[in-house]
Amino acid sequence: MGMALEGVRVIDFSQMMMGPWCTQFLGDLGAEVIKIERPGTGDWERGLPAMGQLLAGDSPFFLAMNRNKKSVTLNLKDPRAKEVVFRLVETAHLVVENFRPGVMDRLGLGYDDLRKVNPGIVYVSGSGYGSSGPYVSRPGQDLLIQALSGIAANTGRRDDPPTPAGTSIVDASTALLMAFAAMVGLFHRFRTGQGQKIEVSLLNTAIATQCQELAAFLNLPKRWERSASGIGGAWLAAPFGIYQTQDGYLAIAMASLTTLGQLLDLPELAQYDTPELAYEQRDVIKPMIESRLAANTTTYWLELLLAHDVWCAEVKSFDEVVTDPQVLHNHLLETMVHPRAGELRVVGNPIVFSETPAAIRYPPPLLGQHTEEVLRELGYSAEEIVRLREEGVI
Question: What residues pair up with 199 in beta bridges, in sequence order?
Fold first, then answer.
């Protein structure tokens, strides 16, 4: 069975999560992704410790988002490396980069430079804030964008400090948006033959992911604050939130307070069962529910509430997530063999295609693992490759 992106060549200059997770999606679906890295050190994320540790010399974060790629090392400040890039771009469909704005242009590898080599190239550029504007020179990173965009300020309880998400949610969302943008660019290219430059940014993504909250802010006069009791959204009414049970925690989303009152033997909840009262009295309602749920186990409440179509779920740790029956059924966790780390369990591609399924074809590359292979494809002789290596170009 053929793969959806078989025959598409991607030149990937990106680092950290935004770009690499995007290009891994493309590689999972059959694209040939050639990852350009610095000689000696490679992608910055190769050296980012998780809990102070690396895994067989690489960061587990790097290993999580760089499978199905070839690694080529190039010193982009050397004109001979620039010639290699031009040869690659001549044969490519897509370029992905997430350097700070202006870096690729200063290297002579910006969109205007590369479209002279290949007018049909689709050039996807990711940044923290966009390619211009008052923040253009600032560092763009997930936590900083959560802070700037309002995400952190609207998360947590009223008396807590601003609270970031438990994962790099803006990086991940931008990677998905970048992959979508790349597909739109490729679709346009294959239909018309025209390339283009496409820009995505962490700030734009963070604002866009809050479209519903910002629509409420921009169009309703009422203002809000985070709840004192821990309602799960600053704009939402009780019972939305996390509740402690006798042996763990339970999440409850939308539910009729009248129904909850009947199930929990709390008939007084019915008096708050209007949208206005459920919001205004949320810090009265949530502690009432918490007190009742603490009297029995998570399993007991889950079975009772689900049987009456109350939207709820147990709160799981990673220990429980990796053995969760739905996670296992969905085949979300896969095993691949890395040349240095051995067997690695990783998150597979989350999309299900009926005709062109994703696949882990090869593990994350060692630094520069495919440099000679790719250069030979481009017509470099063995002697030229040896000389480029000796002179620090590759």
Answer: 125
